[in-house]
Design a protein that fits this description.
Layout: H1 3-17, E1 21-22, H2 25-30, E2 45-47, H3 52-63, E3 69-72, E4 89-92, E5 99-103, E6 108-111, H4 117-124, E7 129-130, H5 141-146, H6 154-157, H7 160-163, E8 164-170, E9 176-180, H8 193-196, E10 205-212, E11 214-215, E12 219-226, H9 230-242, E13 247-253, H10 255-264, E14 275-282, H11 284-298, E15 304-309, H12 312-323, H13 325-330, E16 337-344, H14 347-364, E17 370-373, E18 378-385, H15 390-409, H16 428-432, H17 434-446
Parallel strand pairs: 2-4, 3-4
Antiparallel strand pairs: 1-2, 5-6, 6-10, 7-11, 8-9, 8-10, 12-14, 12-15, 13-14, 13-17, 16-18, 17-18
Helix pairs in contact: 1-3, 9-11, 9-14, 14-15
Length: 461
């Protein structure tokens, strides 16, 4: 890419989009960062398309001049996915945001990529259906598919991988393709849909999604309970899963995180011990049976302080507090920023992995509360650092690196849901071995000029 090529692309894009192509510094700065603790990098311009056809034209203009393109949803990613490290054009998909179809009988919906999860669930409210993937942030569905997002409901309803049936995608040369169908299964050809789910905008730009829906349960019951140790909390969940107890949400918060929760939410008033935040879905009878079974299991693991929430407002208060765990954790160190990382291990290894992680945290001298989607072995660290202190920053990055390598030693992965972006790319070869080279082959085959989100997931020349 040359300055001349970029200038020519911006000129042609201005003719196409008019005021929907911005080179203003404030707009570029908004699109030069996400929620990651990564150095920002500004795009040369930001495009705001309103249709698939415009996305295709943008891509053709840029691809012909080897100008990088970085798809942008709402900027809630956590590993630098949307940072345009090579400049170029940030393509903001937020204005392509219509719910196109709700197919009640087939339990699916067709949406544009700028639709957020709360927007879709608002439109579903009267149908008795719900979209279940909940990463916490009110992310766009296009971004959630691109990063293979998951969240608190994953243990019952699955990740974006299980909940995306079909896609419309603009390829790096501007070609528009459709993958998958509304049928619930198919044996026809390569599974291209799930090649693009999790590709982080490196293989194509998602412009339409068909997503799976579920019926809203007749009865929902949420709860919190405390344990003396993280080991007890995790082992109670493992036993529950082994007997097939169908819990909808199982969140672990360690004692450090609970201290932050109480500080940030003074009305919460929960003991500063390891906690599980739980939710059960089903019929009234079914939920009652699930609760009785789980209480019986927990009695074997020194449980205390069960608190149940049946009213919607109480449940919402509980899960709002959980979704604000990032800010609650940050309250533990004044002026600190959070270096966020996650990993995922087989659930049988989760207790030992967290115990080893806590040893590493103690040795680092840093504060790092832990929150985990304990039902699927995924946990997160919020490593609190002084961003102006290079020693602090190095200690935080060293701690994150050690935890990533620890997860691999337990047969796990360096990211259960945050994705690769810039932050995790250095671990890809160690995790995937020879398969990592195949990812590079796929990238080169689909995007030979390395136009789409270059420098993410794989490095190609």
């Amino acid at each position: 890419m040359t300055r001349e090529a970029t200038a020519a692309a911006i000129s042609e894009l201005t003719e196409l989009l008019g005021e929907r192509l911005s080179t203003g510094s404030s707009i570029r700065e908004m699109h030069g960062r996400d929620e990651a603790y990564s150095d920002p990098a500004l795009p040369d311009a930001v495009a705001f398309p309103t249709s698939t056809e415009e996305v295709s034209k943008i891509v053709k203009i840029c691809a012909g001049r080897a100008v990088p393109i970085v798809p942008f949803g709402i900027g809630t990613s956590l590993e630098g996915h949307v940072i345009p490290i090579h400049g170029g054009i940030s393509v903001d998909m937020s204005r392509i945001n219509k719910v196109l179809e709700i197919n009640d009988s087939d339990l699916d919906a067709v949406v544009q990529p700028g639709v957020t999860r709360t927007q879709l669930n608002e439109e579903l409210r009267a149908t008795g259906l719900m979209f279940t993937v909940d990463p916490g942030a009110d992310a766009t569905l296009g971004g959630m598919a691109a990063t293979r997002a998951s969240g608190t409901n994953t243990v019952r309803y699955g990740t974006m991988r299980e909940n995306v049936l079909a896609l419309e995608v603009v390829l790096p040369d501007g070609t528009i393709i459709e993958t998958g169908s509304r049928a619930r299964k198919s044996s026809a050809g390569y599974d291209l849909t799930h090649l693009f789910v999790g590709s982080e905008g490196t293989l194509g730009i998602i412009t339409k999604l068909t997503v799976r829906l579920f019926g809203q349960p007749e009865s929902i019951l949420s709860a919190t309970c405390a344990f003396e140790t993280v080991d007890d909390a995790v082992n109670s969940v493992i036993m529950a899963i082994q007997i097939g107890l169908p819990m909808a949400r199982i969140e672990l918060l360690d004692e450090v995180q609970m201290k932050g929760m109480n500080k940030f939410n003074p009305d919460l008033g929960l003991p500063e011990k390891p906690h599980l935040f739980l939710e059960f879905h089903g019929s009234e009878t079914g939920v009652k049976e699930q609760v009785e079974l789980f209480e019986g299991i927990c009695e074997e693991f020194s449980v205390s302080g069960f608190q149940w929430a049946t009213k919607a407002e109480d449940r919402n208060r509980l899960w709002t507090a959980r979704h604000n765990a990032y800010y609650a954790g940050k309250s533990l160190r004044s002026g600190a920023e959070g270096l966020v990382t996650d990993c995922c291990v087989p659930i049988s290894a989760l207790s030992e992995c967290i115990a080893r992680t806590k040893e590493l945290i103690a040795a680092s001298g840093l504060i790092a509360p832990i929150v985990g989607h304990v039902g699927d072995g995924n946990f997160h660290l919020l490593i609190l650092i002084d961003p102006k202190n290079p020693v602090d920053l190095k200690a935080g990055k060293d701690l994150a690196s050690k935890i990533n390598k620890l997860a691999l030693s337990f047969g796990g992965t360096v990211t259960g849901e945050h994705g690769v972006g810039i932050g995790k790319k250095q671990y890809m070869l160690e995790e995937h071995g020879a398969a990592y080279a195949l990812m590079g082959v796929i990238k080169r085959a689909i995007d030979p000029t390395n136009t789409l989100n270059p420098g993410k997931i794989v490095e190609v020349n």
